[in-house]
Amino acid sequence: MPIKLPEGLPAKRVLEQEHVFVMDEQRAFHQDIRPLKILILNLMPIKETAETQLLRLLGNTPLQVEITLLRMETHQAKNTSTEHLQAFYTTFRDIERQNFDGMIVTGAPIEHLPFEEVAYWPELTRILDWSRQHVTSTIHICWGAQAGLYHHYGIAKRPLAEKMFGVFTHEICLDIPLVRGFDEGFLAPHSRHSTVDEKDVLACPELQLISKSKEAGVYIVATEDGQQIFVTGHSEYDRETLAEEYHRDIERQLQVPLPKNYFPNDDPSQTPLHNWRSHAYLLFSNWLNYYVYQQTPYDLSSLH
């Protein structure tokens, strides 16, 4: 089934070239199906890239999905044009009276800041609180996961001596529908300067540790009802995303480690393998199916 996108969104052209089934509002109107309403709070600096990565995964299920893109009103984006934001994004004040089947909170490259020093932290916490009553299930990614764990459950992020950077093997700690079909050892990228301590997660009775990595630590955490899901890595990343980040940091003369388990023979001139792709598709399709589609009411006005 298709993913419904605004006409003119740059990601639409990219996905069509990849033969991902997308459609505009006019075609969706003629289908007698209520699409799942998914809100994407995009905190990434280059928003077009994050849009394409997430929409690619959301478009790979039998479910019709309608996307709303949300930006922070209290933050001025520097790497995305004003024209793009005005054309395709909305603000919280415009949607706060609405309900959504699902929500995605992306990462953000601001790990060096304490949460309370992030300029848009008050607005973000308001949205996170709102999601508990207005969203069936929310999935938080990387910094978004750390922010959600801290705000909802008081779990602090902890700085790392060296950047967690590369593609790591993970294991399943608790067999739930979110990880149904996963291999016993599966791969996912990480790119972060801080972490969440496993002991802090296990000490919180409201949370379940779903997956972890011997090298990268805590990976997936969720509440028992699946309303809140936290993913500390970046399964949505494209093949070249870590490479682009590495080369960009080197050009800036930053001291960054070579991404682990990523470049063939640890040679940055070689093309990395995209060996986490199937896990990424499965993670998001399981989320949409088991935690959104099968849990959300047909009439969203009855949500909570």
From TrEMBL:
It is an enzyme of class 2 (transferase). GO terms for molecular function: homoserine O-acetyltransferase activity; homoserine O-succinyltransferase activity. GO terms for biological process: L-methionine biosynthetic process from homoserine via O-succinyl-L-homoserine and cystathionine. GO terms for cellular component: cytoplasm. Substrate binds at residues 163, 191, 248. The keyword Protein biosynthesis does not apply. Its main location: cytoplasm. Pathway: Amino-acid biosynthesis; L-methionine biosynthesis via de novo pathway; O-acetyl-L-homoserine from L-homoserine: step 1/1. CDD domains: GATase1_HTS. The active site is at residues 142, 234, 236. The record marks 111 as: Important for acyl-CoA specificity. Belongs to the MetA family. This is Homoserine O-acetyltransferase. It comes from Alicyclobacillus tolerans.
